Amino acid sequence: MNLDKNTVIGFVLLAILFFAFFWYSNKQQDAYLALQKRAKDSIDRVNALRAIPQDTIAAKKDSLYRDSTSKISVAGNFTTAAIGTEQLTVVENEVMKVTFTNKGGRVKYVQLKKYKSYDSSLVQIGNEKDILSYSINTGTNVAAQTAELFFTAASSVVNADGSQQISFTLQNANGESVTHQFIVKKNDYMIDWNVNLTGADKLLSGGVMNILWKTEPQRHESSVRYERQQSNICFSEGGEFDYISSKTQRKFEKPVQWISVVQQFFNTTVISKSNFANGEIQWTRSTDSSNTLSNTDAALQVKVPLAASVVVPFQLYYGPNAYAVLQNASKGFNNETANLDKMVNLGRDVYSFVRPINKYFIMPVFDFFASFVKNFGWVILLLTIFIRLITSPLTYSSYLSGAKMKVLKPELDALKKKFGTDQQGFAMEQMKLFKEAGVNPLGGCIPALLQIPIFFALYSFFNSNIALRGQSFLWAKDLSSYDVILKLPFNVPLNFGDHISLFTITAVLTSFLISIYNMASTPTQDNPAMKYMPYIFPFMMLFIFNGLPAALTWYYTVSNSLTLILQLIIQKKIINHDKILAKIDEKRKSPKVKTKSKWQERYEQMMESQKKVQELKNKTQNKK
After folding, report:
1. Closest Cα to residue 236, out of 251, 253, 257?
2. Which of 275, 274, 284 is closest to 252 using CA atoms?
3. What residues pair up with 303 in beta bridges, in sequence order?
4. Who has the most CB within 10 Å: 75, 332, 375, 591?
5. How far is CA 522 from its chain centroid?
6. Whether 262 contacts 319, CB under 8 Å
7. pLDDT one-digit tens code per residue, 87-126
8. 319 near 96, Cβ under 8 Å?
9. How far apart are CA 71 and CA 82, in angstroms?
């Protein structure tokens, strides 16, 4: 196929103009923002000079006094817990380091020993702004949040099974007490949290524990924008897994077993062993320039027996979105399936059909290769080859169909010349020709159709596979994120970003070569738009793929390269075009009687009707 030189030059010029436009627009925007900032700074300086000086020391003392008085008043009978000094206690196991605080008697944050953040520090889940608290009655018509009260910490204890236990206690003169008992198990990301309430009938109103959970997960990946896109809220309501990603709120009407704030590769999950009776959650993705991914506010209710002393059991998970780890953690829920592993997005909603492909095919094969190949780039290559081998019988049949179409190309060209503008007549004769030759005109579509479920399955798999995180290959530093060979001084929209990915370039180029090869191998198209297809699809891929993980673009590069190699080998070495033509001629001479399918009958009827309508129009025009 000879490419239109003017078309190629046109696309090159458009690309240059396109990038020049975005560079200039971003430059102008930066200049405008800088001008705004200078104006704002000038106004702030003027306002600061005009401000009336205040006795800041006296004001600060007065503020502290009012704050202390307010805290003592709210603490009610737990006066000693109103004011104190925060003390931190660290408990470690093989996989994490848990920092507890006596303020609220809770987990302050957790560091994961096996995972590094984008800045090479240990991944930390939780920060100063996070709160997990509930309200208790501290006196007559007075209530306080446990997060605002100072508990008394006991020394950690090592249990017989190797787990470590630490407790925090609140107690008043009336004998009412609150004890938070935490158990950190060996080599486990799950923490048992048992709330022991003495005088629960007085501490809780109506036998309901109203839990408040606020959290702001922080960035851990190289691209905060992409990590935000992959973040969501997952939960199990009424025994069924569900999630919110585009919505910003959810009101629970059925019992909730657990709720999780999920990042791309990590999550924080709060589990109630007795279920949350109801509640609601407000969740929004951050859009500013900070490292905060999202903001979560959850209000959850747990029904507690109206007894003097009760134990309310919870569990807290701070860890990776690792399928095997979460699947194992799901087994401890009263012999029920908690579906924690469904937090790992292997296919959801309209793409849920690819989850079985990932779970029972791609994941086991990937893990098998990874068991003896240490570099994950080569694992992906082996996985790609394996997929192509499995699909090779169908691929061969499609190439054979394409070869038959190529053999028939001279006859099709002759038919086009014979019928001219009579498209209906040409279509009817083309169907007859295909039927005589035993050719399926849709046979060449099979590789493209096969790519659809496989691509969506691998898109989900590579996005959610934490094993790829931080794994380098060739020039890519992290296969779970895009590779960067050139950083741009501006940001290009439509998922392109502020960089250029080399694996994206190789995927686009190989896709372009396949399009060119296929166009050259198929009969000439009358539709002028068809000649632009080899340019349009790869151009679209450039914007879609540039922000995707390098693992996916590397897979696509390998898959496209294998497609080209297989096409050349099969069509040049395996398929004999002369033999195909001889078989077609033999079949024409001794055609077998074959019952037409309903689709063929309807298609021929439709074409016949269109032909008659066209003939009628031609006669009418000739009379005029």
Report:
1. 257
2. 275
3. 208
4. 75
5. 38
6. no
7. 999 999 999 999 999 999 999 999 999 999 988 899 999 9
8. yes
9. 6
CB atoms within 10 A of CB 77: 17
158-179 mean pLDDT? 89
What would the mean pLDDT of 400-416 be, rounded to a whole number?
69
CA distance 606 to 575: 35
- Which pLDDT value is given to residue 1? 37
Report CA 95 to chain centroid distance, whole Å: 25
Q: How far is CA 438 from CA 404, 408, 415, 519, in A?
A: 9, 11, 18, 22
23: nearest Cα among 410, 455, 371, 498:
498
SS3 assignment for 62-110: HHHHHHHHHHHHHHCCCHHHCCCCCCEEEEECCCEEEEEECECCEEEEE
Give the C-alpha distances (Å, rounded to integers) separating 205 from 25, 140, 187: 59, 12, 38
Lookup result for tokens 């959650």: 281
Distance separating alpha carbons of residues 259 and 235, to the nearest angstrom:
4
* Contact (CB, 8 A) for 233 and 243: yes
- What single-letter DSSP state applies at residue 574? I
Evaluate whether 585 touches 434 at the Cβ level (below 8 Å): no
Report the C-alpha gap between 16 and 50 in whole angstroms.
52
d(CA 304, CA 51): 54
* Spatial contact of 482 and 223, defined as CB atoms under 8 Å apart: yes
pLDDT tens digits along 411-430: 777 777 777 666 666 777 67
What pLDDT does 201 receive? Answer: 86
Measured between alpha carbons, how far is 584 from 590 in angstroms, rounded to an integer? 10
d(CA 72, CA 86): 17
As a residue count, the chain comes to: 624
What pLDDT score does 569 carry? 75
Beta sheet of 278-285, edge-to-edge order: 142-145, 131-139, 208-215, 294-303, 278-285, 249-252
Q: What is the dihedral of CA 446, 448, 452, 453, to 10 degrees?
A: 30
Name the E strands within 461-610.
486-492, 497-500
Is 177 in contact with 309 (CB distance < 8 Å)?
A: no
Whole-number Å distance between alpha carbons of 441 and 402: 8
CATH 2.70.98.90 domain locations along the chain: 70-344
So what CATH class is 70-344? mainly beta
Q: How far apart are the first and last CA of the chain?
A: 42
Residues 492-501 have a mean pLDDT of: 76
Q: Higher-confidence residue: 448 or 83?
A: 83
pLDDT at 469 over 80: yes
- The Cα–Cα gap between 337 and 239 comes to 8
Residue with the bigger pLDDT between 230 and 522: it is 230
